[in-house]
Structure prediction request, 468 residues.
Amino acid sequence: MNSLDPRVNRLPSTRYPVPNEPTAPLDQFGTFEVFVVQPKEEKPFQHEGIVHAPNLEMAYVLAKEAFTRRFVCVSLYVVDTTNVAVSPMTEGDVSIYQQIEDRPGQAGEKLSYEIYHLTKRGKQHVHAGTVQAVNGPDAMVKAKHQFNSGKGICSVWVIRTKDIRFTLPDEKDLWNTLPEKKFRDASAYKGGDKLSMFLQSKQNTSDHSGHSDNADQ
Amino acid sequence: MNDIALKELLYKIADDQLILGHRNSEWTGMGPLLEEDIAFSSMAQDKVGQSLAIYTLLHSLGDGDPDTLAFTRGGNQFQNCVLVELPNGEYDFSLVRHFLFDTAEAIRFDLLSNSSYEPLAQLAKKIRGELRYHTLHANTWIRQLGSSTEESIARIQASLNFSLPFAMGIFEVSPHENELIESGVFAGEKELKQRWLAKVEEIIHQTDLRLPDLNAVEPVLGGRVGKHSEHLQPLLEEMSEVFRIDPTAEW
Prediction:
C-alpha cells in the first residue's frame, strides 16, 4: 500500500498472525448510554448518546472525550444499554404514563431506580428523579405516581442506580483543564477575512487583464 | 538560582510534550475504534497545548516565541527523552508508552504544583484535570488489555519489556539537578522515578503482566542532551513542513 499520507506508509506490518477463521459477524463491542450534566451543577443529567466499549469502565473513559471535550461539563455517567428499561413511545400530546397500568404491589427487596423523561421527540431523555422499586416495570409505575406532571411525556427510561458508573467525587477535576484552547475552534481562525482578501485580489487581477471571461469563449 | 537550570527543566518538559503529542496525533483517523481515536487524538492535542504553555514561559524568560522554538530548532537542540520520539509501531506499544510516560508526567506536574517558580506551579494546577484523564485512560487500558486474552497480555508484556529501557531515559538527571532541588523549583528526577515506579507497580500488579527487574534494565540516555535516535529528525521535518513554507504567515 502506498498512500499520500506518510502516516499510512509508516504503519508496520503486524507481528501477529491474522486468524484464519473469520471473526463472528457480531463480534463487536456492545453499546453504553452516556449521560452528562452541563453547564451548571444544579442541572439534571441528560442523555447525550452512546459509546462502544468492552466494559463499563472503558465506556466511562471513552465517553469523557467523546462527549465532554468541547463544552463545560461538571459530571458524566454511563450505563450498559442492555440495563436501560425503555417504555413504548407515544405520539402527540399523549403521555406515556396513560399507558402504564398500575400493578399489584410486588414482594421483594426494593432498590433505587433512576427515571428519565423524553418530553418531545428529537430531544434527549432528561433525568426526572429516583424511585425505590422491586424491578424495572415496578419502577415505571412508581414514576407514574411520583413524576407524572400531566405534560406530554412521550417516553420513559428506567435504570437501576447500581448499574450506573458515576463520576466519583474526586474525579470532578477531570474537567478542570487548560482554558486557552481557542485553536480547537474553527471560529479562532479568521479564514473568512483572508478568503475575501484573496477573492478581492483575484478580482483586481482579472479586471486589469484587459478582457473578460466571455471574450474567451 | 540561574535561568539556565530552570530553562533546561522547561525545555525537557515542553519537548517531551510536543514530540509525544505529535507522535500520538499520527493515530488520528487510524485508531482501533472511533471512540478511542477521539480520546487519543484529544490527549495528543492536550500535550501540544501543554507544550505551548511551557514554550510561552520560556519566551517570557527571553527565548524565542513558541512557534520558533517548536518549528525551527534542529534535532540536537531538542531535549526530549528518546522514548517519546520512537515511531508509533502497533497500538500496544503506543498504549504502553502512553502509560509509562503519562504516569511520570502526572507525577512530575504534581511535584511542580509546589514549585518555587510560581508560573510553573500555576500551570501545574491548571492542567491537573487533563493529566488526571490521561492517567485514567492509560491505567484503564493497561488493566483491560493486561488481563483479558492471551494475545493481549502477550502484546502488552512484549511492549512493556521493549519500552522500559527507554522509559528509564525519562529520568536522565540534569547537571543542574541539585540547584533545582535546593531552590525548590523541582524535587528532582530521582524522587520522580521513585514515585513513578510505585505507581507503575501498583497498576501492573492489578493485571497478569510482570514488571521486569529494573536493576537489570540498561537505560537509554542522551535525549536530555540532544542525542537522539534516527527517528526524531524526520518527525521534526514533517511537523514543521507547513511552517517552513512561510514562517511569517499568520494563522
About this structure: The interface with chain A takes residues 26, 30, 33-36, 38-39, 42-43, 45-46, 49-50, 53, 87-90, 126-130, 132-133, 136-137, 140-141, 144, 148, 151, 155, 238, 251 of chain B (CB under 8 Å). The radius of gyration of chain B is 18 Å. The CA atoms of residues 161 and 212 of chain B lie 7 Å apart.
